[in-house]
Amino acid sequence: MPKASRKLEAGEPLFAGSPRPASISGKSTVDWTGFREALGGVETLTDPSRVKKRSRDFFWYSPILNRELAGCFGDLVVLPKSEDELARCLALAADWRVPVTIRGGGTGNYGQAVPVDGGLIVDMTRMNAILEVGPDFIRVQAGARIATVNRVLSEHGRELPIYPSTEEIATIGGFIAGGSGGIGSIREGMLRDQGNILALSVYSVEKAPRRLIFVGEEANAIHHAWGINGVIADLTLRTVPKRDWVDVLANFPDYPQAFFTAAALGALPRFDLKLLTTIDSRIVAMIRHLEGHVPAGRDLLSAMVAREQLADFEVFIMARGGKLNSARDGRTDGSLPPVSEFSFNHTTLQVLKADRSVTYLQITLSDLESAALIADLRVTFGDEVLMHHEFALLEGRLVAFDLPVVRFTSEARLYEIMDIYRAHGCLISDPHRWTIESGGIKPDYRHLAWKKRLDPHDLLNSAKSRSWQEVKHLSPEDIGQL
Ligand code: FAD
């Protein structure tokens, strides 16, 4: 007999009159021992400290999310090893009406994998098989680590076109469900661009889970939906020929010079680049690993450049007043981490290691010609906001994602800073809110139409969508039209 959970009335004590221990989340009335037994041999974690560890991601970058999410935990972790076991977990969760949060490596930044309603955490990392390596694609199970995928591909002379700087921990399913772009975006654009995600196999959360395959553009309804509308079991992704990338550090006397050199490099297709980053000298000074690698007071341009273009690249840098101070095989030279570990959200992490009082923002700059924009903002912000840009193709156009290090004083000031950026024509993706809508990359409600179809009991990470609360009473067809 299913033991359905139920909502507590206001003020009602948990488990009143029951010998059952309080749940780890403090939000659940489920008999978790019975649930575990009913799973019939699927590996689980019940130890509260391990369950709590797997309830977290990197939300703590944000003091606001840290305040709101640090006390949110799941109740039980399951680690399915096969699609069969995964389907069994999802069927039981549907039968018992248990909230479900899917988890990969737990490296998301916005509390994406935090079980705010408590319940079941499905850790996908045991489902990690490489299923097929084709001439220009790879099919893998969702829990495979991205670095493993790239290592297998390199044996075939291929690599992923785009991957995050967290590749050693993050899973490929978590990246497609939670990420957007990264290393490679300078030439290959964003994950959602046509041809990057070829197909996704996705499970529904029902008593008899269905397995659906989303092909091509259809997969974008599941991509970056934070696991609220289905569970990705395997993925087919485009691959590209592997290049011999060299990590490069160059330095400049001032930040605008580094920034506009990067913008010019990014605009020249003859340069084969995998990564192109600029970092303010004041951030460089806070990163211990860079000590001795970048002269004091110099602003940094770092890149991954095709080896055969290194000489040409150096000439370009020098002609613009820069100096190449290091070019090396990042992955084999132990003196410095790869430049990817000073890129995207890793730059912020390097600073946070030294100073936990800072935080960050995520801003898109589309006008790369405007020298005044960078100069004005730097004067306006002084030492409070220190710039760091990642260059990428967004809808085919070169843009710079500013992930500045911000000295945090208050929530109100953080939002004032965002308003100043907005007033300068920049687009904000708010990393201090834990709903999908704050990121602003879902242009329509297709993902919610699929949630209605694949998650009829509203169990999958539901609190993460504000819009879902408004549309969940509608039919999938009506939601899809909105
Ligand atoms: P998790 O954090 O475990 O999960 C992310 C989301 O996906 C959650 O909502 C989860 O419920 C869902 N999910 C996980 N697996 C599945 C599945 N099989 N089916 C359905 N839903 C699922 N992001 C970028 O886009 N680019 C970057 O360059 C980048 N760099 C980063 C650097 C640092 C230092 C950090 C901390 C984060 C960075 N991120 C970046 C964010 C994050 O690393 C990526 O999104 C990452 O790929 C997430 O993978 P994960 O396995 O850790 O996913």
Architecture overview:
There is one protein chain. An eight-stranded antiparallel β-sheet has the order 15-12-14-13-19-20-17-22. Strands 5-6-10-8-9 form a five-stranded antiparallel β-sheet. It is 29% helix and 21% strand. By secondary structure, it is an alpha+beta fold. Mean pLDDT is 92; it is low at 1-19. The protein is globular and about 70 Å long. The protein is built from 17 helices and 22 strands. The chain has helices spanning 32-38, 48-53, 63-69, 83-96, 146-155, 172-178, 185-188, 255-266, 281-284, 310-319, 344-352, 371-381, 411-423, 436-439, 446-454, 466-471, 476-481, and strands spanning 44-45, 76-78, 100-103, 120-123, 130-133, 137-141, 158-159, 197-203, 211-215, 231-238, 240-241, 245-252, 273-279, 299-306, 323-328, 358-360, 363-365, 385-386, 388-394, 397-402, 405-407, 427-428. Flavin-adenine dinucleotide (FAD) is lined by residues 57-58, 101-109, 112-113, 124, 142, 164-166, 170-171, 173-175, 177-182, 226-227, 231-232, 344-346, 349, 461.
In short:
With 482 residues, the chain is of the alpha+beta class. It contains 17 helices and 22 strands.
Summary tags:
eight-stranded antiparallel β-sheet; binds flavin-adenine dinucleotide; alpha+beta; five-stranded antiparallel β-sheet; 22 strands; 482 residues; disordered N terminus; 17 helices
